[in-house]
């Protein structure tokens, strides 16, 4: 783990800078590196509530594509006995009676609110791994008290600037940070921030003894069944198990999870590099991608995001690497295809980058459940007038297609236009049934939030 | 992640392009004297937005803020990072509705003031009852 070399807390925020002036945390002998997991509480529902105060305190569900089933629930909806995956048609008839509100997925809104959250979190640490649309791991440093304060500040700042409530779990390892985050959500006294090592030993023990082992990040249904058969029912049983025996019975993955629960960091942070050296666009999927077609779309979107970032930083790249991977925790399959392409010239052109990213497709196996994919560009240089000297410029570049697309995306939003299948990103969405969708408040001029002057 | 293979692919070249490439440009020639001065543009974001992450745009419906120069159909730039103070134009949540009003905080209480004589002020009994969604910093008004 590269934790030690990185002084993670940046001082973009004035408040933070002021706090650090008196006691620089990185110099203190008792200051340590921790992992913070920050995630938005019931993200989709919370994003809807930011713009619609009538949804506060009411049971709210957000529906999947085509208004099929519930993919996000407010605590009030959970209290009604509604579960993740409950089909909408089963509960729609009685909805009015119990005051239940359903919303179609508003991906534009969620995407833009997610960007805001991640941008705010990035002010707290240069070392951030955006794990999914609503959660990120951050590397932070400090004493136990200092990281507690930092966690609090993260939570307050995201709420103040975006209106979204988050919980923060802080611990020595990612797996424990996940556990601390779950604890922060469940224990109201913690007020949304749980620093694992500050929880009294006895309380932690009691908690681990109460939690079924399936609650651990990375322990799936199948592993749980096998563990249960061995008499390992709770997280505590698992922590107390012999790591070597676990490795023999399962694999190195489960042993790593066990060691992480004991406080030994084994799962590295995946962080995005300084755009001076390389640029990575990578995300975990909310649902596994299982077909070449879907992957083609994903790679197209990622390549174009990478192109957008290159444009923003005024850089261009010579080499592109695209990769996909199954989950580390997938017991059945393991596949990490990657392809590196040397571009014909330095470029930030989305056409060129998309084409290069698709070199990965022949290696994608239909039916494998990919959990994450990414596009990385390396060998960067400043974009400048020298590009006109390049002999190997693509046909599109000459026709200024890339620039045109970039302009449109800049004006109309990142998902307004794209190349090939990435251009279809919203195509299916248009045909999708989204009858109960709220306005796209943050991405469309004609759907802005209405404020009353009456 | 490891790199498994390195591909080199040839771009699709169209001769037409090589010719058109020269039109209007002199790649190795004398650079335009205006080049050094042309790298900046007026950027409205820079002028209107202090912090992009905390900024939202909303649209006004109604005429109760006309004396403040805020008209029906105007857009407001709202910055959630600003702490609301007396005199700010704020977006407040009143009876489950997003409302734009002038915030007045005095010794006698908190008032959400309309900027149009035809509309009454809204008195907020307790400061803690007031939910301010954000502070409006600019009004975009079409002329």
UniProtKB/TrEMBL annotation, chain A:
Keywords (A to Z) from UniProt: DNA damage, DNA repair, SOS mutagenesis, SOS response
Record's signal peptide: none
CDD domains for this protein: PolY_Pol_V_umuC
Domain annotation UmuC: ranges: 35-220
SUPFAM superfamilies documented for this protein: DNA/RNA polymerases (SSF56672)
Family: Belongs to the DNA polymerase type-Y family.
Stored PANTHER family: DNA REPAIR POLYMERASE UMUC / TRANSFERASE FAMILY MEMBER, PROTEIN UMUC
Job of this protein: Poorly processive, error-prone DNA polymerase involved in untargeted mutagenesis. Copies undamaged DNA at stalled replication forks, which arise in vivo from mismatched or misaligned primer ends. These misaligned primers can be extended by PolIV. Exhibits no 3'-5' exonuclease (proofreading) activity. May be involved in translesional synthesis, in conjunction with the beta clamp from PolIII.
Protein name: Translesion error-prone DNA polymerase V subunit UmuC
Organism: Yaniella flava
Encoding gene, per UniProt annotation: umuC
Automatic annotation (TrEMBL), chain B:
Domain Peptidase S24/S26A/S26B/S26C: 23-136
Top-level division of the source organism's lineage: Bacteria
InterPro entries with a match to the protein in the record: LexA-like, LexA/Signal_pep-like_sf, LexA_repressor, Peptidase_S24_LexA, Peptidase_S24_S26A/B/C
Keywords recorded for this protein, A-Z: Autocatalytic cleavage, DNA damage, DNA repair, Hydrolase, SOS response
Any matching Pfam family: Peptidase_S24
Family matches, as PANTHER family: LEXA REPRESSOR (PTHR33516), LEXA REPRESSOR-RELATED (PTHR33516:SF2)
Family stated for the protein in its record: Belongs to the peptidase S24 family.
Protein's name according to its UniProt entry: Translesion error-prone DNA polymerase V autoproteolytic subunit
Organism: Yaniella flava
